[in-house]
Structures are given as structure tokens and as C-alpha cells.
Design brief:
The complex is a heterodimer of chains A (132) and B (388). Chain A is mostly beta strands and 132 residues long. Chain A is built from one helix and seven strands, in the order H-E-E-E-E-E-E-E. Chain A starts with 18 loop residues before the first helix and ends with a strand. The chains are: A mainly beta (132), B alpha/beta (388). Chain A: Pfam families: OB_ChsH2_C, zf-ChsH2.
């Protein structure tokens, strides 16, 4: 975990459904919910399976590797990001198939490409991704 | 039950102003309500169904109904962002067909240029996805930039092609004395405007305007008694598009489904359409929607919009002849109402003469409420002449 965050962080706001996700992040582990009945991965995290309507869902630890599905370079930030432009927002497709919104950090914004291999890095407890 | 011919749009009114520091939001709702009813040849006392969305103040249809002095049989506050008003037309038509309403009033108003409250900021529980989307510094344009980048990756779409959409809108807006931006721009000027979120430039984004609009939807029996030409509802479709259980597909919109439903109900095809009002929060919104509605093959939207393809009156698909949200008006950050209003003008032959489509028989209006990069509600209306 880097000593200084790449981008703004704040303590996450867990709910009964997501506390396990955020607790894992705080330990440097990425977990993704998976249905105990149909075995499909689920994103965004919730304790309900949108594939088969099961309420039996378990958080599974994943490697945290994937590729960039799409990205944008924000030329102007707002709120806590105001002083951080340019920065990259992306959808990363994990090896497990789910596509999650995140930031790409630790690389020049001009070097980010669709299809680029990436791996998770925890910025405080916030899961971001960097070049693999 | 089919909605084909179930209802007619008898009145339409767009607030002429774009910067309104001296009115409250309910006051603007009232101004446009009066305007649309007068256009139809009806009065507030005739209204028996009222529709408004998240831009309405307080308790929505209860608060606005009280402000306006309405006594309705039917109230509906379906909130699907900027597409709400097209959804309302469909819902109103269904209630008219069911015999529960005969004159439905739909209003929109807001003052984002003057600090008007953002819709949806009520005391409701946070959205379940919010913590997984709000931490990354995304503004609304980011959601569209993500879609544009993916479209470019999959299909080779270029920034210059997106710019063509803004150019066409500006060519139309020059004829609209109320348009917020009336200067004609070139592809080069769009590309030279600052990048906001790659690959989208400032000129790929719609305007921020105060204002509003209203429409009046009536039964066929009432339409037949009114002095002005009414527009016949031929088909309506709506469809939610979301992150697909975690496998979001950024290169399609809900128009794939809403358009197919509307065309099927109307019994017509894209080739039959003379004029389109396409939701244009950003240039990419237009390009993907045109593909998804079937006006060209998937991935060919970039080529389709080139060489004046969208320019009225003689382009292959004249669009947004009022200047659209890109140049004319995007009141309350919601572009659906003005899309319907310009389609009505075209079918009445009352668009500006420079952009009026000759012999306009069939028009399509499409709304996209929400964001391309996460979730949105698409709604499509197909409208025609009274004898269509």
C-alpha cells in the first residue's frame, strides 16, 4: 500500500450489505460477491443475486487483475478532486468478468489504453488499479 | 393493448427564456402549463390528468396540482430523468385509452443557471451503487466520455465525427431567436475547444439553461374538436439500461429496446421517419442512439453523421431543428420535453422555414434520462399526422 494516496480518499461508508467488502479492502484484499446458487459473480456489491434472485451470496477473494474496458482522462476535477486533474476514471474488467468503476493510478494519464492489463492497488482502503 | 392512435398531442409550449433569475420553479411550471393549454385551445379547468417528474417541487404532482388549482382524476410522477416527459406521454395515452383521462398536462421547469435545486436530492435512502461510483472523481461528463472512448475503440469512431453533430445543431440554432447559443461552429472549432473528459470537448456538451416546457395529450374525441392541428401518437417504448449485473456494455443504449417497441407499435420502420428529435446531452448520446434506433448499422454512426447527414431540411436524417440541447435549450438539465416540442412543430409545419422538413409526415422523439456510463431510461415516441 502506498504511504501517500495517489488520489483523494475518504473512509468508505459501509452498509450491512457491503461491510465485508470494505473490511477486506482495509486488509488489502479484493473480494467480489458471488451467488451460492447460480455461482455467477455480482457487481456492484450486494447481498442479492440479480442473475437468479437468490439471497445466498458470499464474498469471494479474487486476484484483483484484469484489463481496462474503457477510460477517460478528467481534465477538470471537482470537489476533493479539484487539484488532482488530470486523472483517469476507468471501467476495469476483472478476470472474473465483472466490470467495475475505478481510477487508474501510478502511470501517466497519456499511457492508459483500452485493453491494458492492470492490477488492484489499495489507496487507504479504496481499490484503484495500476499497470500490471 | 396498443397505444397507436390512443392519444394526440394537442398543445406544446417551450419557455422562451434561458436565464430566469426572477421566477420560482413552480411559477415556471405554471407559465408553461398555461402556454401549452392555450396552444391546444384548452384551459386549466379541462385538465383531468397531471404529470410531472423530479424537477417539480415539494410533493411533485400533489404540490404542483395544488399550486395550479387542478382537480384531476389521475396524477403520475414517474421519474426517469430527462426522458420522463416521453414516458409520461405513453402513460397518459394508456390512461386515456383506459377511459381514466381525457386531457393530460405534462410540465417541466428548472433554474440550474440560478442555483435551482438539483432533482433527486431528497431524503431518500442513498442509491445502493453510490459508494462504488462516487469515490472516483466522476462528473456527469465522465460517464459519457467512458461511453465515447469505448465506441471509438470498438468501431473507430472519431472526435471529428462527434463534432459533426454539434455543427449540425449549430446550423439549426442560428435560425432560433431563443437559442442559448446561436453561432454556427465548425468541426475545427469543436475540436479546438478544451477537452473536459477525453475524448469529449467542451463543445460536445449540452448547454445549461433555466426554463421549461409543457405538452398537452388528449383523447381522439377531444382532438377532433380543437382548432389547431394535433399530432397523433403512433407508438411509444421505454427501456431501462443498467450495468447489467456487473457486465456493463458501454456501446449500446436502451434505445435498442425502446425504439424497437415504439416502431413495432407504430407499424413503421426507421426508413419511414422524416424527422428525429434525438436526446443530445452530449454528442456521443446522439451518435449511439441513432445506431440503436436502427437508422444505420451498429458502429456506423460516425459515418452516418458526416457530410451534413443530420442537417435540415435535406440531410439523410434531419435532427433537432431547434438547435437541440447542444445549442438551444436543456432546461433543468433535462432535454426530453424540448425533444417532443420540436417534433410537434415539425409535424405542424411550424418549425423555422429554414429547417422545416418538407411534407413531414412521421417524426420520432427520443429521450435518454440518466447516464450512458451507468444507467438510464430510454423512451421513444413515434408521432404522425392526424390521419397517419
Amino acid at each position: 500500500m502506498p504511504e501517500t494516496p495517489f488520489l483523494p480518499t475518504r473512509p468508505p461508508r459501509p452498509t450491512h450489505e457491503t461491510v465485508e467488502f470494505w473490511d477486506a479492502c482495509a486488509q488489502g484484499r479484493l473480494v467480489v460477491p458471488r451467488c451460492d446458487d447460480c455461482h455467477e459473480y455480482i457487481w456492484y456489491p450486494r447481498l442479492f443475486c440479480p442473475h437468479c434472485a437468490s439471497q445466498r451470496v458470499t464474498y469471494n477473494e479474487v486476484r484483483g487483475t484484469g484489463t481496462v474496458y474503457s477510460f477517460t482522462i478528467m481534465r477538470k476535477g471537482s470537489g476533493p478532486y479539484k487539484e488532482f486533474a488530470p486523472y483517469v476514471i476507468a471501467y476495469v474488467e476483472l478476470d472474473e468478468g465483472v466490470r467495475l468503476m475505478t481510477n487508474i493510478v501510478g502511470v501517466s494519464v497519456d499511457d492508459v489504453r483500452v485493453g491494458m492489463p492492470v492490477k488492484v492497488v489499495f489507496d487507504d482502503s479504496i481499490p484503484r488499479f495500476t499497470a500490471a | 393493448m396498443s397505444l397507436r392512435g390512443a392519444a394526440f398531442i394537442a398543445g406544446a409550449y417551450e419557455h422562451p427564456r434561458r436565464d430566469i433569475p426572477d421566477r420560482t420553479v413552480p411559477q415556471i411550471h405554471a407559465e408553461v402549463a398555461v402556454g401549452a393549454l392555450a396552444d391546444a385551445g384548452l384551459t386549466m379547468a379541462d385538465v383531468d390528468a397531471y404529470y410531472c417528474a423530479g424537477d417539480a417541487p415539494g410533493f411533485g404532482p400533489i404540490s404542483m396540482g395544488e399550486y395550479l388549482g387542478l382537480r384531476c382524476r389521475t396524477y403520475d410522477s414517474t421519474e426517469t430523468g430527462g426522458s420522463s416527459y416521453l414516458v409520461h406521454v405513453g402513460h397518459a395515452a394508456a390512461m386515456i385509452k383506459a377511459g381514466h383521462a381525457s386531457v393530460a398536462l405534462i410540465t417541466l421547469a428548472g433554474t440550474p443557471r440560478n442555483g435551482g435545486a438539483q432533482p433527486g436530492s431528497s431524503g431518500a435512502a442513498p442509491a445502493p451503487e453510490s459508494e462504488f461510483e462516487n469515490l472516483w472523481g466522476a462528473t456527469i461528463v465522465a460517464h459519457y466520455a467512458l461511453a465515447a472512448q469505448r465506441h471509438m475503440y470498438e468501431f473507430g469512431t472519431t472526435s471529428a465525427q462527434l463534432a459533426e453533430i454539434k455543427v449540425a445543431a449549430s446550423l439549426h440554432a442560428q435560425h432560433n431567436p431563443h437559442a442559448f447559443l446561436r453561432d454556427v461552429v465548425t468541426v475545427e472549432e469543436v475540436l479546438a475547444s478544451p477537452l473536459v473528459a477525453d475524448p469529449l470537448h467542451r463543445m460536445d456538451c449540452c448547454v445549461v439553461t433555466d426554463g421549461g416546457g409543457a405538452i398537452v395529450v388528449v383523447s381522439p374525441e377531444i382532438a377532433a374538436t380543437l382548432p389547431r392541428r394535433s399530432v397523433k401518437l403512433l407508438g411509444q417504448g421505454e427501456a431501462a439500461k443498467d450495468t447489467n449485473r456487473g457486465r456493463i456494455d458501454l456501446s449500446h443504449t436502451g434505445a435498442v429496446w425502446s425504439g424497437a417497441r415504439a416502431f413495432a407499435e407504430a407499424g413503421v420502420t426507421p426508413a419511414d421517419i422524416d424527422y428525429v428529435s434525438i436526446y443530445d446531452s452530449f454528442t456521443i448520446t446522439v451518435l449511439v442512439t441513432i445506431e440503436d434506433l436502427g437508422f444505420c448499422e451498429k458502429g456506423q454512426g460516425g459515418r452516418f453523421v458526416m457530410d451534413g447527414g443530420l442537417v435540415a431540411p435535406f440531410g439523410r436524417l434531419p435532427f433537432n431543428t431547434d438547435g437541440g440541447g447542444l445549442c438551444n435549450n436543456h432546461p433543468a438539465n433535462r432535454g426530453g420535453m424540448t425533444k417532443v416540442i420540436e417534433a410537434v412543430r415539425q409535424l405542424r409545419g411550424e418549425a423555422h422555414p429554414a429547417v422545416q422538413v418538407p411534407n413531414c409526415q412521421l417524426a420520432l422523439a427520443h429521450g435518454t434520462g440518466g447516464a450512458l456510463g451507468t444507467r438510464h431510461m430510454s423512451s421513444t415516441l413515434i408521432l404522425g399526422q392526424p390521419d397517419a
